Amino acid sequence: MRVLFATAEAYPLAKTGGLADVSRALPVALRKLGLDVRLLMPGYPRAYVRVENPRIVAKIASFLGVDDATLVEGIFPETDLPVYLIDSPSLFRRSGGLYQDEAGKDWPDNALRFAFLAHVGAEIALGHISLGDDWIPDVVHANDWHAGLLPLYLSLRGDPRPSTVFTTHNMAFQGNFPADWVPKLGIPSACFQAAGVEFYNQISFLKAGLRYADRVTTVSPTYANEILTPEFGCGMEGVLRQRRDDFVGILNGIDNSLWDPAVDAMLPRTFHLSDISGKRACKAALQQEMGLAVMPDTPLIGFVSRITHQKMADVILEALPWLCAQDVQFVAVGEGDQAMEAGFDQARELYSANAAVIVGYDESIAHRLQAAADILLAPARFEPCGLTQLYALRYGTLPVVRRTGGLADTVVDATATSIADRSATGFVFDHATAEDLTSALVRALSLYREPLVWRRLQLQAMAQDFSWDASATQYAALYSAASGMPVDLGAKTQPVTVADQESTRQAVC
Ligand code: ADP
Ligand code: GLC
User: What is 2-210's CATH number?
Assistant: First the structure.
């Protein structure tokens, strides 16, 4: 089974969030299952310096006025995963972010940049761009709105064509652009209708992925159900309901080798399930690094997140005066919404005795904070899956989460019953309010004062298995169902959660 995995980011070549973590870990896990997966992504400057043995394999013919592109093949660092970078200086070699300029404004040609990603994916899939070894995928797996046009381009251009799977990692990011982009992206005007890619008189890349892929997935079972409703569907719930028979939620896993407190080179001391004493050393080191008093018994509460409305950063700000009046320490590392960032900056000044804030993005501090903290704040108004709570569990840091999406699927609230039956792994609350958040924290802080119970909860958290093994098998089974190609998963076969039905290809426009 050959799979082309198309994404806008993959750690460590380029990362703004969890999509990057998944885009590395899932292909690697699938390759371990024996699938021949290859990655396709834009050639950002930061990607070239990290990829191993880069070499040009193809010149990409001019498309949509882009005539400077070549395809660079390499090996994804520390893996055996082949990666193809689209080297187009005019589209991707820029200073600034992946999606935004240095001032935080979306690049004005994002529609073109990511249409080009989709175009190159389609051309590889149809054999029009040769990878040099007659490699043509059986399945194309497109991720998020950035790759949303890939299933559409393939439907328009190919018969026969590989099967397509589209994964939405977040329905709130839709890639909607003014209608005048439609002809400029080589999309027939017949597709610009409600039953096609039109969404409130704009072209929506997300909708293209949802409508034209043979199968659609999202990243947790609970979020899959939620986004069929107006509350979570971001206006696309109707589109998704039409795809119900081809739609499934598969829970994300984590890369257990990158996020392993037993070997994590970013930590000052490692630790593991049978001896977590190193966690105390990590805590002391971080307290020092952040300029906080080194107090081993004071609960350290961490927050590693985009600072956005989704992540309830506004509600955390509202709760901070109460929180910082408790006998706790609070450390946050994050970036995002500028007004909320300013709020966190202000909190650092106001509560300097027990709060430290880093506004910015720092992978290594994220690891050190996960290792050092006792409690991770990971609330969200909606959360497709969420990875930080999974990293926290593995590092013996108990997450406080809201009961939504993947958070609800991965954290078991500590109640008298779940503590007794040893299933508790964190603290879960229901409403996106400061009141509910603080009452979950009150419960957490009170259990923290019972060291034996707390230790047991930590060990239960660390014992959870959120590796990719089970979920990668589900993707492999899905690819197999979509393409009609058998994959030999041997004893690893898990029940397929999607009805194993005939492929229901969408009529094009
Ligand atoms: P999302 O993708 O919605 O932001 P996830 O929990 O799925 O949320 O993934 C977030 C990823 O980004 C995790 O790997 C987390 O450690 C990382 N991350 C978020 N903010 C920061 C930051 N400021 N510095 C370093 N890593 C961060
Ligand atoms: C998105 C979601 C997050 C998910 C990640 C990886 O960024 O917001 O919940 O974990 O994608 O799938």
Answer: 3.40.50.2000
